[in-house]
Write a structure and sequence with these properties.
By secondary structure, the protein is of the alpha/beta class. The chain contains 13 helices and 14 strands. The chain has two domains: 140 residues, Aspartate Aminotransferase, domain 1 (Alpha-Beta Complex); 206 residues, Type I PLP-dependent aspartate aminotransferase-like (Major domain) (Aspartate Aminotransferase, domain 2), CATH 3.40.640.10. A seven-stranded mixed β-sheet has the order 4-10-9-8-7-5-6, sandwiched between helices. Strands 11-12-14 form a three-stranded antiparallel β-sheet. A two-stranded antiparallel sheet has the order 1-2. The chain binds pyridoxal-5'-phosphate (PLP). The site of pyridoxal-5'-phosphate (PLP) has 13 residues, from loops.
């Protein structure tokens, strides 16, 4: 069924105008651009970014001011601010300060853990599909990757992972919630798995989307690291704090394990980034605003999936995953013509699309375009 959606014209950017693209409904291109704070109309070259699971609101004004002010000291070396951020995180997480390390994004520690696994000459077990930083790094350092397909419900299959463990297993990577499939691992089963399997290998739990998860069956595993040198939990400021290109992330691990991971650290956090993070992590009100908006957008997307009879995975992140019923690359390319950039195609579910939440008003536009083009 095709939707007929042009009555009031909605001009969607210069290239779209040139191509005669018009949509009825909510906003003008100028309003749309203001919504995005980008000052340029939405187009193929300036799309609504529903692609990399970024925070569509950007850094909060309060944090932005702190970061800009901090640039006044950007010419100086700084060796103490990291400790202040660690204290803030320790208080929030209720874990000891000596179990926390700051980095330039969690990728630093995904890479480090992968390197440790490879150098130890062992295998890394990961779900398939999952986030690939650690698997790439481990393979770069000589590890063999053992991929364990997700279960029939598309969530990480702990029993299958358990069966995949051998004497060669050096690391097990669990992305929870997972990416690109935004499902969670049930907390009791996960804790049991971590306690049991950490006797055989290092367990790395990537909690990049932790703040968004609101399923009561979800829990962090941060409480396990203090007493267990083989459990590492990773977090990032890239998502809810919108620091994707400011670069702050964390490893939570036993001090002995942190010492090993820190050997691979690039030492590239900056004073403005650290100062911004100190303010951002303490600004609970802004975080709640971001979460509320995230789920508002998600409900708009769920409704569209229901309207169109599409299968989708209940999300505990800032992105959704749905069966488009056709090649994801075709859907991706077609949406881009209307100034919407969604996630790339992920093997092996080549008909499924990953859509990061945008602002609700942008998401309404997405729905109009999607229904017009694929409804
Ligand atoms: C699961 C997961 N882990 C880690 C990252 C990277 O985080 P960072 O920006 O902190 O390096 C991402 C980025 O999208 C992610 O999805």
């Amino acid at each position: 069924m095709k939707n007929n959606i042009t009555r009031r014209e909605w001009l969607v950017g210069s290239s779209a105008i040139a191509g005669g693209l018009m949509l009825g409904g909510a906003a003008t291109a100028q309003e749309m651009a203001q919504m995005m704070n980008m000052g340029a109309p939405i187009s193929k070259d300036n799309p609504i970014r529903m692609t990399n699971n970024e925070n569509p609101y950007g850094i909060s004004p309060k944090v932005m001011k702190v970061i800009i002010d901090a640039y006044k000291l950007a010419h100086t070396y700084n060796f103490t601010t990291g400790r202040k951020l660690i204290k803030v995180i320790a208080d929030i997480e209720n874990i000891p300060e000596n179990t926390i390390a700051v980095g330039a994004g969690s990728t630093e520690y995904l890479t480090a853990a992968g390197a440790l696994c490879g150098i130890a000459g062992g295998d890394l077990i990961a779900a398939y599909p999952t986030y690939a930083s650690i698997t790439r790094s481990a393979q770069n350092f000589g590890a063999k990757l053992i991929s364990v397909p997700v279960g029939g419900d598309m969530s990480i299959d702990l029993d299958a992972m358990r069966k995949a463990v051998t004497n060669n297993t050096k690391c097990i990577y669990l992305c929870n919630p997972n990416n690109p499939i935004p499902s969670i691992i049930e907390k009791n089963a996960l804790e049991q798995f971590c306690l049991e399997m950490s006797k055989k290998a290092m367990i790395v739990i990537d909690e990049a989307y932790y703040e968004y998860a609101r399923d009561p069956n979800y829990s962090t595993m941060a409480h396990l690291v203090k007493d267990n040198p083989n459990i590492v939990v990773l977090r990032t400021a890239s998502k809810i704090h919108a620091f994707a290109n400011v670069r702050i992330g964390f490893a939570f691990a036993h001090p002995d394990t942190l010492k090993e991971l820190l050997k691979f650290r690039s030492n590239t956090t900056s004073y403005p980034a650290l100062m911004g993070a100190i303010t951002s992590y303490q600004d609970k009100e802004h975080q709640e605003f971001i979460i509320d908006k995230n789920y508002e957008s998600m409900d708009i997307l769920y409704k569209m999936f229901d309207d169109l009879g599409m299968r989708y995975i209940k999300s505990n992140t800032n992105f959704v995953y749905a069966d488009a019923g056709q090649d994801a690359q075709i859907v991706h390319d077609k949406l881009l013509e209307s100034g919407i950039l969604i996630g790339r195609k992920f093997e092996p579910f080549t008909n499924w699309i990953r859509i990061s939440t945008a602002k609700p008003e942008e998401t309404e536009y997405f729905v109009k375009v999607y229904k017009r083009d694929f409804g």
